[in-house]
Design brief:
Blueprint lengths: L12 H7 L4 H4 L8 H16 L5 H10 L6 H10 L14 H4 L18 E11 L2 E10 L4 E8 L4 H15 L4 E4 L8 H9 L3 E4 L9 H15 L7 H16 L11 H8 L1
């Protein structure tokens, strides 16, 4: 499909991708320039964080050593940041004053979620590939477990995640609340001001809290173990098509967390 997209066409790259239902980021994908061993380390740590969510740099260092890999503290810390691996533990409050205005309280405590588009959860995660990696942003409707929006990008830039939010709102309408962690993508001016203009309530996890964004965290585990780790992709387009096909199955599969209902049917029925 990538060969069908060209700069010589009268249509823009954006319009060509939209017509073919292809992510623009996947068209522009270039493998990240990390050595093979670093890519292997990142994938091992990405898997390990699901088994031990509190694993920090020293724990990862011990895990790697047990698997025959010797890596220094600074190297592991850099690769964890590159793979967006964030251990869960109480952290010191280090928010600088310039960013403090973009931090919002957690609004989901004891909230009774009774319908679709009441609460969305958004997050971004690292996706390993055969010769590099990309980042996946996804938004889950908490009531139905339906993925209302998702997208791939080459960077952790806030614009990529914001684009996913905008497309989800255009397609499904506005949620009452959207919850995220306090990552840089969600504590920046463009993200906050857009949601405020749309009159969407902003909720954010407390630092180091394991369960505040639990539904999207569970989704990461599911898609990685059922698709990503089993099917390492060569290109961005292959990854995009693979995730899209996997989601088609995911949405029409019964889920225990919603009384064996199917996310797509529940979302459409209640929308």
């Amino acid at each position: 499909m990538r060969l069908l997209i060209t700069n010589t066409c009268e249509l823009s790259i954006r319009k060509q991708c939209k017509l073919m239902q292809i992510s623009r980021s996947s068209v522009y994908y270039q493998p990240k320039g990390e050595p093979k061993e670093n890519l292997r380390i990142m994938q091992m740590m990405d898997k390990h964080i699901f088994e031990e969510p509190t694993a920090g740099v020293l724990t990862m260092q011990s895990m790697l050593f047990e698997n025959g890999i010797s890596a220094g503290y600074e190297r592991i810390r850099r690769l964890m940041r590159l793979a967006n691996i964030r251990p869960i533990y109480p952290r010191r409050h280090l928010t600088i004053l310039k960013e403090k205005q973009y931090i919002h309280p957690y609004l989901l405590q004891n909230l009774n979620i009774t319908g679709v588009n009441q609460v969305w959860e958004i997050d971004i995660t690292y996706i390993p590939m055969k010769k590099g990696f990309m980042y996946l942003t996804a938004i889950i409707d908490v009531y139905s477990r339906y993925i209302v929006g998702w997208g791939l990008s080459n960077t952790l830039d806030a614009n990529a995640s914001l684009e996913v939010v905008k497309e989800a709102i255009v397609r499904h309408g506005k949620p009452q609340i959207i919850n995220s962690d306090q990552g840089s993508q969600f504590t920046c001016k463009i993200y906050i001001e857009y949601l405020q203009a749309e009159k969407v309530k902003i909720s954010m996890d407390g630092k180091g809290r394991a369960l505040d964004n639990i539904y999207i965290e569970r989704f990461w585990r599911t898609i990685k173990y059922q698709y990503v780790y089993l099917n390492p992709c060569e290109s961005g387009l292959e990854l995009y098509a693979g995730i899209r096909n996997w989601l088609d199955r995911y949405h029409f599969r019964a889920h225990q967390g919603i009384d064996r209902k199917k996310p797509a049917e529940l979302f459409e029925m209640c929308a």
